[in-house]
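Help wanted!
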Amino acid sequence: MIRAALVLLLLSGPALAIGNPADMLPDPAQEARAREIGRELRCLVCQNESIEDSNADLARDLRLLVRERIRAGDSDAQVVAFLRDRYGDFVLLRPPFNASTAALWLSPALVLAGGILTMWLVRRRGHAAPAGPAPLSPEEQARLAALEAEARR
Amino acid sequence: MTPALRRRLLLLAPFGIVAAGGAAFYGMLQGLQTGEFNPRGVPSVLIGRPAPAFDLPEVPGAEVPLFRHADIAPPGRPVIVNFWASWCVPCVVEHPQLMALSREGVPVFGIAYKDRPEDSRGFLRRHGNPFARLARDEPGRAAIDWGVYGVPETYLLDAQGIIRWRFAGAVTPEILAREIRPLLRRYAS
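Answered by r_m:
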């Protein structure tokens, strides 16, 4: 029984959130556009899913809203602007580059640069000639000469 | 710096990093407890903008005057707008704070979000009604215009009807004391 349930679970593929055909636009081209836009919009509730993938109530409302705007004749950019007006840059799964997202976009480059710098420093230190012992002071030299003279005797 | 001192400082560095991390984590937990820090928080873009227009029906039988856009355009004094629902657990948590504001004479306007009228009525009967005016947004469309992404959400509007503050989540006594009351004082004139 449990095994059968497991097999069923494995066989069932990932379900698209937009399950209700009544929610889709009758025009396939418009529906394709709606999906394209929806995949770029973040579900504010689950936050790591697009509104096309999410099962949250709000995601469904936003999906319907996107389709409503498209039916009203909005361009893709207008639809996105409509939602950005209400939820800000946060609603975009690909946030634009600006002062508050600079750290987000630049951090991979910074980490890479830090790694390269570290490697360069480590290698340079490895290549530097090992420092020999300090040269002898005059007293040490005098003592050495005395010892050598003694040994020769 | 002598090499020995430098070596000792280097040994201390990991301890320093761990201590700083611990302090930051403690601060985060404190913030989570008071509701000041919300890791899933979405900043509102409506701050500094006038409240969006809406035209909503009343909650039948609740015997609370209908909350219209005209009531806050402009309200003439700072007001609180609260999105809530009877099915929302944090709404029960924050309810005493809304009641306190209402008792002090602060206008608290409510919008019942995706809630059936009979459920909204039952909630207000059980917990008391803090709302001077009330509207019903069952489809949740007006809420989207406000940038609401979950209930409860609380907005503070100044006398001109400009949104000055938004809080997503239950308004705790700490939030009330630390944020809402100072803001009400600041925008009182």
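OP: Thanks! One thing I noticed: Chain A touches chain B through 14 residues (CB under 8 Å).
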